[in-house]
Amino acid sequence: GNIRKRKDGRWEGRYTAGYHPETGKRIIKNVLGKTQAECKAKLSAAMAAARGIDVSRADEYTVATWLRSWYEIYAKPNIRISTANRYQLMVEQYTIPRIGNIKLTKLTSRDLQKLYKDLMENGRIDRKSGHGNPGLSSTTVRSLHLMLHSALERERLILRNPTEDCIAPKVQKIEMQILPPEHIKDYLEAADRRGLLPMFYLELVTGLRKGEITALLWSDLDTQNKTIS
Questions:
Q1: Which of 34, 96, 123, 173 could cysteine-pair with 100, CB 3.0–4.6 Å?
Q2: C-alpha closest to that of 90 among 104, 75, 73, 106
Q3: How far is CA 164 from the centre of its chain?
Q4: Over the stretch 155-201, which tens digit does the pLDDT of each residue have?
Q5: What is the rounded distance in angstroms from the CA atom of residue 177 to the CA atom of residue 184?
Q6: Rounded CA separation 194/183 (Å)
């Protein structure tokens, strides 16, 4: 929507109320007010009505109360347990401590951009990454951005989703650090001394993840064909 002052002294707000079903052209409507503030209030209410947004309900929520409500009602029942746990971490430990007390209707893209910056620089709770970085990875912060976008779209409680105006972090690829060939003998001897040579040798030659290796059963091993599945 936009506001202008007319020649007769009144203020006019124009907004897109929808689109014509046949032509696809925008349907433009207007509101009038004696003052700019009155016109702005009428314009916000009209735009909310056009989009089916319940402005009165939006005032009930802070970012914290809405994210918790969204998580319990929409997210948790419809996603895998591992994803639900990751969402809960992002909601409770990364987002709410930083912007949870902001009113939902007052949340801006600038608030979110500052959140992303802070998480990238100081987001880790109790430790540094393997690269000595106290911040979260760009992949994690981008995932949080996508989660917030989804949460703020539900029930259309606000006129505009502030994530749409944010710049999400680009995923940064970090070069993998591999074990130098000259260290392999020491690596395997250390594993052997601890009675763990088969596990560590298997990890070395297959590239299996730690979780995949520790989950292996003897029934996964086919000694006749020399395969593991």
A1: 96
A2: 75
A3: 12
A4: 778 878 999 999 988 887 777 788 888 999 999 999 999 999 988 99
A5: 14
A6: 17
Could you give the angle at which helices 197-206 and 184-193 cross, rounded to 10 degrees? 150
C-alpha dist (Å) from residue 17 to 4, 25, 26, 153: 18, 11, 8, 19
For 214, the enclosing helix (H) or strand (E) is helix 210-214
Query: What are the pLDDT digits (tens) for 108-155?
Result: 999 999 999 999 999 887 665 555 678 999 999 999 999 999 999 887
**Residues 18 and 50 sit within 8 Å (Cβ to Cβ):** yes
What CA–CA distance (Å, rounded) separates 46 from 30?
9
Provide the residue type at 209 as one letter: R
* C-beta separation of 47 from 3 below 8 A: no
Nearest one of 34, 14, 16, 37 to 25, comparing CA atoms: 16
Residue 220, number of CB atoms within 10 A of its CB: 10
Q: How far apart are CA 160 and CA 153, in angstroms?
A: 9
- Residue holding tokens 């000259």? 182
Give the closest residue to 160 by CA, choosing from 99, 118, 112, 92.
112
Distance CA 167, CA 109 (A): 9
> What is the value of pTM for the model shown?
0.59
- Alpha-carbon gap, residue 103 to 62, rounded angstroms: 4
